[in-house]
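User
New here, help please:
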Amino acid sequence: MGKPGNQVPVSKNFKKNVEYLTKELRVEENFDVIHHKLVHGGRRMAMFFIDGFANDLSMIETLKSLNDLEIEDLKKNPIDTLTQSIIPHQEVETTEDLEEVIGQVLAGQTALIIENCNTAVMVDTREYPIRSPEEPDLERVVRGPRDGFVETIVFNAALMRRHVRDRSLVMEYLQIGKRSKKDIALAYIDSIADKELVDRIKKELEYIDVDGLPMGEKTLEEYIFGKRLSPYPLVRYTERGDTSSIHLMEGHVLILVDGSPSVMICPTTFWHHLQHAEEYRQAPAVGMFLRWIRFISVLIALFILPMWYLLATNPHLGGEHLAFLGPDDPGTIPLYVQFLLAEIGVDILRMAAIHTPNALATALGLVAAILIGEIAVEVGLFTNEVILYIAAAVIGNYATPSYELSLANRIFRLVFLTFAAAFGVVGFIIAVTIWLLALIKTKTLNVPYMWPLLPFNPRAFFLTLVRSPLPFNDKRPSILNTKDNTRQPPKRRIL
């Protein structure tokens, strides 16, 4: 007998094949692994499948067709007869490797072993359990489609193809994980995407040698981009089909992971995490306004706390015009400690809200408002200004389109605040400088993280700041080195 991972040829010895599959699939120990014994056309057959993955209608139709077999039907080329004439199914394959049979059965296919044949027939009768497509919670829009990705890779690929009907759209299939055999799909438009970029990502994926992917696409991200201390995301996650299709047509490469409703977009820059589908569902002027509001919210989330702290503890910095900033009575607890306690309290509330059942969410909100908004101020734990600016920073975080970017900004907000409290204005400037240098130095798949600001590309940076009408945006991002950098001919511009 062979070991998992090695090729084990399908033998003409029917009993030997059945014993191997029965042992390796643990049929006697698993209630959901089915071994169905059949006799059709004068030959013994064995059917192996996972109960929860089998589509009832496909199985019934397959068994009906087998039941009509005559002895003469299988005398010559039984495999060809079964796959080309008998089994009424669109997706039928053959294999001569029992290890591949095991892998495909565990992935949901049905295996048919035929007596005196050294080839197994694989029938795709699978039907994965799925939930209905719903609008993603993190990417809601006022106008636009409400369908989002689900946990099944086949349906997610279909949703992409619904938006992009390009014959050169490639969904390349891989399996990662020696034990989990996780299904992965690499999606790109072959006539647009840079071949070197595709090959590099594929090589990184094929190089992964691990038992499984416990956290799905997040585990893949860590393997692709390696060890790094920066909390900033190097890939963008989306659960929307329209967002995915836009990036495909720009020349990005997408990674789909079975079991996850999120799709990874590679490569991305800092500015990609500040985009939102809502900007393109409104008029260009409105979209630009919304984009600038998001930029301002990110700046507020990062800098409002340390800058207010500096002005409150150093009144001379703001002059007479900003003399009103800062509490009249800072209280017995230092302002820095108040901010630190408030930040920890907000994170505790956020975690509690995630784990709180919907029926109790209102009660949690009331308790949080009373404890933090009123009682904490009355007992002197916080000043009113601390509550105000913490609330502004938190709202700025929640207005950030990318959840991963908002978490990274929260960490650096605390870093800026700590340096400002420890070393004053000089410490704040040093912290911000180190932050900027770290972002400038960062690269994602050889793409500078701060492009098009650094290195500076005037046209691309203008389109980053301004939501221009789409007919004017006729070029793809130059940083992606696409095969075809033109979205549309210039003559289609609206003058």
